[in-house]
Each structure stands twice: as structure tokens, then as C-alpha cells.
Write the C-alpha cells for this entry.
Amino acid sequence: MNYKKFSKLGLGVLLSSTVSLFAVDAKTGSEIINTKCVACHTGNLEKGLSRISDLRKTPEGWLLSVSRMQNSHGLQLTKSEESDVVKYLSDNQGLTQDEIKPFKYILEKEPSKHEINDSELLTQMCNRCHSNARIGLERRTKDEWETLIHFHIGQFSNIEANAMARDRDWFGIATNQIVPMLAEKFGKNEQVWKDYKKSIANYKLPTKWIMSGHTPGLGDFKATYNLQKIYEDTYKVVMNSEYTNGLKFEAKGEAIVYSGGEFRANLVQNSIEFKQVLHIDAKENILEGRMFETLHSENGSTLKAVPLDKKELTIAGVYPSAIKADAKTTLTIVGSNLEGDVKLPKDIKLLKTLKHTSNEIILEVETSKDLKTSQNSLVIGNKTLNNSITLFDKVDYMNITPDYALARIGGEDYENIPKQYATFEAIGYSNGADGIKGTSDDINLGVLPVTWNLDDFNEETKNDHDLQYMGSINRYTGKFTPSEAGLNPKRKSSTNNVGKASVIATYKVLGNEVEAKAELVSTVPKYVNPPID
């Protein structure tokens, strides 16, 4: 795809969801707020600024607010000023890592994520429009939550006429039940924020990391991750990755650290732009999160990194994490301070040590043909890594992840809106000691090499010939590519190329044949891509 041909609408929406990664200055941000924002907000940052001082948000949350002020209320900021304002607000009124963790999937643009909300009332009243994460990634005073309800009534005048609103006293329920619920669950709680800032006050971000990652469809990889500080919390980034299949990539770009724990980077790899949303665990000194294409957030990788020179032995990744019986393979361990001899489980024979440094161990190994499925420990020096590798003789069942996926038609001929892909993986399982599927002792056998196919979802989709028109799946990688957008005169009623199908994964090894099924929907393009849905 030629990324330079995007329409002004599509490109504008995408650019608005990112903060320019130049040297940002929180101090300048405070000066801008105290001069430009006071035109509408009373007070000042030092003594309290109406509405603004009653909130805590992520960088993406503050960007949404600042963007709305510009789009709806006439605030005029340059991109540099916008970045400085977001930086100041995130640093001084952000969220803690514990507050972000339950909802980080929305920041990391995790594809096909299914939320589970423990409140049916909140689902009906709020989640019909917003994700649960959109709500959970804000902290407001009780008065501010109530003001937000009033804002919805004023800004969206038809809100009480919509489904799940016109059948009830929406405003009354929102004011009397939802506001107290949100104030208790997501209240501003200034002390929590102060305690967090105090806990990370002396943390210094390392500049050299060893990283382990996984990309659906491509597999596991290791990477070196180097930072060069260019201004306060702004860094240049160089990432060199190598997959287990031998593919190598270099990515370069810039990063900003917000609120002491939220790491955001824009990188370019092989002329493709990527974003990284990573989270800093200052206590454990770990960096983890997700990296994804800027224009295709569904295409991405999970990442975990530890400092190259971390004093205690720490593992970033072991791959493969599961090895079948009677197999020769290369076992890789990535981490920090990997000193000392390696002791393997009894059913793994060491054939050759290919590499052993303080950050990487590569072993050529062979597994016994008579082994039984079990979780095993690795020992490096005097450190035991419990349940770090699984050995298996057969696969009892598989689950496909995601079990329900959403793809979107698109293409350059249709307003230059990009397609949204879907990539599936099959995770193998052993029934465990009790021999019963789906119980607590089942053993995860990792991603399996399967073949992929599509099948009719039901009689209706068969009669509509969805399989013929909706797109295709790569037989070996599990990546589904949707069809082009636009009307199709060959289809009934000349409808477009949307459709629904069953995704079938088949695993066949030495007489062990297992099949699993997932659900795929390919639907219309998505025109608005906010930082938080």
C-alpha cells in the first residue's frame, strides 16, 4: 500500500491520535495553560484551575481533551504547544501504573479485545457508546463526574432518545446511581497519585535494554533496545530485532516518558511507521507493552525488556516456551546477568552451546521421544526458573486467539481508507493430570504450527456467498486479508464485500490431529481512530 496517498480526512484523523515526538517541555506546557486555558477555565494551576484540576488522565486521555478544546471551543495551539501541554498534564495529573494496568489493552490497541464489565447498569448506561477502558482510564472528583453527565446531555441532545435511554430516566439514573458508582470506583484520590510519584522519584531509566517479543504470524524475536537522552524525558531510540526464523529488522525513532511510567515511541522500520506503548515498572525495572503499525494497529508485537546490566538474574523471554517430544530445536534464553552453568530438565539433551553471554543463551537441544507432557524448570547458575519450559508428547485440544475477530474492508480506491487485518494463532493445551479439558491443571503448550482455512459460518452466510467475496486467510500464517471496499455488482443487491466466516485451525503431527474453530467478521471501514475508543 502506498501510504503517501491517504486522503486529508484519513490522515488528519490518524495524526490527531499521536503527540509529536520532539523535545517536549512540561514547564512550557504549564505556561501555555496559565495563559491560554484561563480564557475559559477560572483560576490557575498553582491554586486550582476549574475542571482541569479535578482530573487525572493518561497522555492519550489528555490529548483527547486538548484536541476537543481546539476542535469545539476555539483553542489555538501549535503542535509543539499541544505536546508541551499534554506533557505537563500527564506528569502532574496522570495515572499510576496500577491504575493503568487493568485497561492498558486500549492504549496498546490490542486487537479484538473483549471487555468484561462487572456492572450491567454501567454497560447499559455508558458502555453502549464508550469502552469500559475509556471510563477506567480517568480519575475525577464526584462533582466532576456529575459535570460530565451534564456535558453529555448538553453536547449530545439526542442521548436520551437512543436505545437503552428512552426506556428509562437516563439522566436521573446517571446522576443518582452512575455518578456515585464512578466516584467510588474512579475518584480522583489525590493521595494515591502523590504516593506513586514519591515511589518513583529516584528511578533512573536505563538506556540499554535486552528485549523479547512475539508477533502473531511471524513468531518470537529478541532485540537490543538503546535510548539516547536528548532532552529531559525525550529520547532517540534504536531497536535491532532478530526473529527465530532469521529475519532481522532495525527501527529508529524518538520517545517520550510521561508521568514517570508511561513510555511512548514513534519508530520507522523498513519505511513503515510504528508506535510503541510501553509501561515502566520502576520497582522491578522492567519495560513492557506493545508495538504496532501506526496505520494498522492490528499488526503488532508484544514486548518485554530488562536492562542489559541489571545486577540480578532476570529473564525477558524463553523461546520456544514449549517443545514437543523427539525434536531437535534451538532454545534461546534472553535476559540480564545470565551467568553460570545451565541445567536442563532430564528429558532435554544438550547437543551444543551456540552462545552464552550475560544477556543471551542459545542452545541446540534434543528432546526424548518417550517424554510425557510436563512443566519444567531451567536452572542458570544458582537461580531456578520455575515452570519456564514445557515438554509435551501430544496436544489434547487447541484454542484460537482471538476466538472472535473483527476485520474491515478498505483500500485505496475507496476514499483511501486502509483495510483492517486479523491474525489468528492456535494455542495448544494438555488436559493435565486430571485428564479433563478446561480445568485449572491444564497445561499451555504455546503457539502451534497449524494450517488455516475458512468455512461457512452458517446457512445464511453460505447462501450469501460470503466466503467468495469477503477475503482470504494465509494458510500458514493465519493472517486474514479482507476484500476491497465499495459496492459489488456480483453480490446480491450489489452489497459490499463484508461477511462472516468460521476460522478453522488444524494441527497434524505423527497421528495427533486436533482442530479448533473461531469466529471472523469482516465489516465496513472505521473512519475515526481516536487515541482511546
Remarks:
- DSSP finds 13 helices and 30 strands in the chain.
- The first helix runs from residue 8 to 16.
- Residues 1-21 have pLDDT under 50 and may be disordered.
- The longest strand covers residues 219-231.
